[in-house]
Design goal:
Length: about 250
C-alpha cells in the first residue's frame, strides 16, 4: 500500500484540455440553492485561476482516513490535477511551496486546534493559495476564519458532494461560509494592551493601575473588545485573541 503522502498520478501537462471535460465554473451554477454553502462574494476577485485550469490541492490532517477520503473524492474530478496530503504543518508548508498549490484543506493540528495558525502562515508565504478550514463541527466562526485569511469553513461530516463543491468553488476564488459575516474590527492599541493583561490574569483594578486609567475606563475598553471578538467573558476573549494571533 502506498503512503498517503505520495502524490496521485496526474496528466503531465498542467491545464491541458480534455474533450468533454466539464468546466470548473459549472460548480458555481445553483450554488445559492446549495444546502450548506453560501457564496459570500460572487465576484472572482483575487482569483488567478482559469475555469479550465486543473487544481492542485493539499489536504492537511492528522487522520490518514481524511487523506484517503479526500483523495478518492477529488481525484475522480476531471478538474483536479493532483491531490497531496500532509500530516504536519511543516510538511504542508513544504508541499505548498514545492507544488504550487491552489487550494489547501486544513484540519485541526497539534497546538493549532482550529487550523488558524497554519492558515495565516500559508497566506503569508503564498497569498494566492485558497485555504478551507476543515472542522469536525461548526466550531470555527466565519469571523475567525476570515481574520486568519481562510476562504471558507467546511465540516468534515458534510455529504461528499458538498465537500467536493467547496473545494471547486474555493479554487475558483470564491469565499465560502455558512453565512456572510463582516470582517472583524481591529482592536485598538489600548484594547490590545488590555487583552494581553487579561490573558496574564490581571483584574480590572490591576489593569487600571498598570495603565494609569480608571477602572471604569478599563471596563469600557473591555466591553468594546468583547464585542469585537464576539466573546461573552474573559476566557472566551482570551481564546479568540489567541486564535486570531493577537496574543501569544
Amino acid at each position: 500500500m502506498s503512503h498517503p503522502d505520495v502524490t496521485v498520478p496526474a496528466p503531465a501537462e498542467r491545464g491541458a484540455p480534455e474533450p468533454g471535460r466539464p468546466r470548473l465554473r459549472a460548480l458555481i451554477g445553483g450554488a445559492e440553492r446549495h444546502g450548506r454553502l453560501t457564496v459570500s462574494d460572487s465576484v472572482l476577485r483575487r482569483a488567478p485561476y482559469s475555469p479550465d485550469r486543473r487544481l492542485r490541492v493539499v489536504v492537511v490532517a492528522q487522520e490518514e482516513i481524511l487523506h484517503w477520503g479526500f483523495r478518492v473524492l477529488l481525484t475522480e474530478q476531471p478538474w483536479i490535477e493532483r491531490c497531496l496530503a500532509a500530516s504536519t504543518t511543516e510538511h504542508a508548508q513544504e508541499l505548498v511551496r514545492r507544488y504550487d498549490i491552489d487550494v489547501a484543506v486544513v484540519g485541526p493540528m497539534p497546538g493549532d486546534e482550529l487550523g488558524l495558525a497554519l492558515s495565516r502562515r500559508i497566506q503569508q508565504e503564498a497569498p494566492r493559495v485558497r485555504v478551507l478550514l476543515m472542522s469536525p463541527d461548526d466550531g470555527v466562526s466565519p469571523r475567525m476564519a476570515q481574520a486568519a485569511g481562510a476562504s471558507g469553513v467546511i465540516v468534515r461530516t458534510w455529504p461528499a458532494a458538498d465537500l467536493v463543491t467547496a473545494v471547486g468553488m474555493a479554487g475558483m476564488g470564491l469565499t465560502l461560509f455558512d453565512h456572510v459575516d463582516a470582517p472583524p474590527s481591529e482592536l485598538s492599541h489600548r484594547e490590545r494592551d488590555i487583552i494581553r493583561l487579561i490573558a496574564a490574569g490581571a483584574t480590572n483594578r490591576e489593569i487600571a493601575d498598570r495603565l494609569y486609567l480608571s477602572p471604569n475606563t478599563i471596563k469600557q475598553h473591555a466591553s468594546a473588545l468583547y464585542r469585537k471578538l464576539e466573546a461573552r467573558n474573559r476566557a472566551e476573549a482570551v481564546r479568540c485573541a489567541q486564535q486570531l494571533g493577537l496574543i501569544a
